[in-house]
Amino acid sequence: MTCVVVIRSVWEDSHVHLVKGLLVAATLAAGATVAQAQSLSLEGGGAASLTGIVPQTYAQFAAEEGISLQVVLGQTLTRSALKLAAGRIDMAVVPPPAFGAMSRGVGPYADQGDQAKAMAENVRALFGFPGGTLHAITWADSGVEDWGDLAGKRVYIGPPAGAASGQIQGMITAASGGLAAGNDYEGVRAPWGAAQQSFQDGQFDVYVALAAVGSQALNELSLQREIRILGVPDEVLSTDAWTEALTKGALVKTQIPAGTYSGNVTGDTDLTTAATSMMMAVHKDMDDDTAYALTKAYWENLESMMNANALMRTIDIDNRFGGTNAPLHPGAVRYYEEAGIEIPANLMP
Hints:
This is TRAP transporter TAXI family solute receptor. This protein is α/β, with parallel strands linked by helices.
């Protein structure tokens, strides 16, 4: 079987269907076995984050179930969620906060209002996985040694659109004891792709990156000079503020293991931070057998995927629904029930 992966940043919608047609044609031309495979479109995030790594790796194993995934990376996932709900694509990596906003017709979906709320009824989840780990990074000689030192500083808090900015701000507020963007520090918004270079150019003091643990791009930062990655103190982890930050932001507690990054002056100890949660989502009209096969392909091959790509090793194989807030597809429910896996009541379709 064959999977097709396309990495692109921003293309006009008018080109999407043409590209899909060309990909299908090329795949069919590859051989009779591929011609018999079911072909589905799947949109993911950045190629260097788990929002891109998971779909790309997963596609190889979905092919073994007779499903050829046409994976398109580099997408704005709030937009992908809307395209999925409208039936314009078959699958998408969906941030739970984005689905929550769509269900209420607010945030990036405010212009669609009631239409967005109605479309959210079309979204079904297969499984959850971490999208990326929040790394609060500053230069070792910047004078920022703990979260309270962010007061009065310029802090990168994510792109102008999407859910990440609220997640980052929530973590900072909890970890610092109440600091808020706009009042206590200057929150700088910019596209993910430009953020690291802007940090290196001195445009902000603290760079909160969203990346897989062990990212080579982050490792390269210390080639310029030593860095400091801030961990959340133990005394914060038991507070209501930390619990609220995780709950509201659909975040999960995670760790950056000691020794992960060279040139990190706090790298001699495990650092607690937060990771975003993502859902692999499909349209409600997907047939049950396909949803079942897709769910099976992920969970029964996850250990192999983690062994093949070290950046996936932060995935908790026992946390199947972390952050998931869309109802499960009936086909996924069948897989979990057959596997004897308890399903939270709020996720039942």
